[in-house]
Amino acid sequence: MPRTAIVTGGGTGIGRAIARRLAADGLDVVITGRRKQVLEETAEELGVRAVAFDASDVAAIEAALPALPGRVDVLVNNAGGNIFRQRPTPAEGDLAGLRDLWAAQLEANLLSAVLVTSALTPRLSHGGRVISIGSIAGARGSGPGGSYGAAKAALHSWTGDLAFELGGQGITVNAIAPGYIEDTEFFGDDGPPAERRAALIGQAANGRPGRPEEIADTVAFLASTEAGNITAQVIHVNGGAFRGR
Ligand SMILES: NC(=O)c1ccc[n+]([C@@H]2O[C@H](COP(=O)([O-])OP(=O)(O)OC[C@H]3O[C@@H](n4cnc5c(N)ncnc54)[C@H](OP(=O)(O)O)[C@@H]3O)[C@@H](O)[C@H]2O)c1
């Protein structure tokens, strides 16, 4: 029987590349996300299954459970992104707006992973894998406002604690922290402005952006039997833009 994988946010960008790679490795893959049409188009192209739900909404997760695999060998918590880019910056003194922004950021990048993983923990197989997509921002900060980096830092910390909760069942729990990755919707349809893009690339030792497939390759390794003794780690994949420690 093939191993099963669930990739949240698998309709686009990094998640889509992860789903493609795991399917090519012979896993039975389910991708999830909020936009049904985007998901279904990707699922058809990759030959995987789509289940649409909002990973930060408890009722939506519970409603989706019957459609998700009964045994989960690999769970990839990839859904997320910088809410800060999708909303106007709250005006100075707008505490309610600031609260909403931070809550949305934590929901998108932390609670999505915590809730989906908790819902699926009873289905994780012995020797299973939980892999969450963090960010370089979780280690280095995310610039003005700081909410995205703070949410990813919390995801990294939770990863370490969950590894101890699930370690007795032979399950490994790790995070991958990408640097700047192109060909995703993270910076919107057109990517970052040219100056910002050049600055991001300029931070890397290899002078180039990362590719979604390189994160997928790292997921594939962590999902393999060879990676059975790697757990509670944050693996940095960033061309040298941050020296992981
Ligand atoms: N691109 C980068 O440079 C970079 C760098 C470091 C880390 N990351 C992280 O990598 C992960 C993937 O992002 P990406 O770069 O591939 O950008 P992306 O193309 O925007 O992918 C994010 C995916 O997550 C889904 N998603 C977001 N919120 C969701 C929710 N509440 N419930 C279900 N699905 C949700 C989106 O689909 P729907 O909108 O349809 O739900 C989308 O398919 C994110 O966690 C991001 O923070 C990206």
TrEMBL record:
Keywords assigned by UniProt, alphabetized: Oxidoreductase
Pfam families from the UniProt entry: adh_short_C2 (PF13561)
Record EC number: 1.1.1.-
Positions of transmembrane segments: none
Xref: InterPro entries: NAD(P)-bd_dom_sf, Sc_DH/Rdtase_CS, SDR_fam
GO molecular function, one term: oxidoreductase activity
Sequence similarity: Belongs to the short-chain dehydrogenases/reductases (SDR) family.
Identification of the protein by name: SDR family NAD(P)-dependent oxidoreductase
Organism: Actinoallomurus acaciae
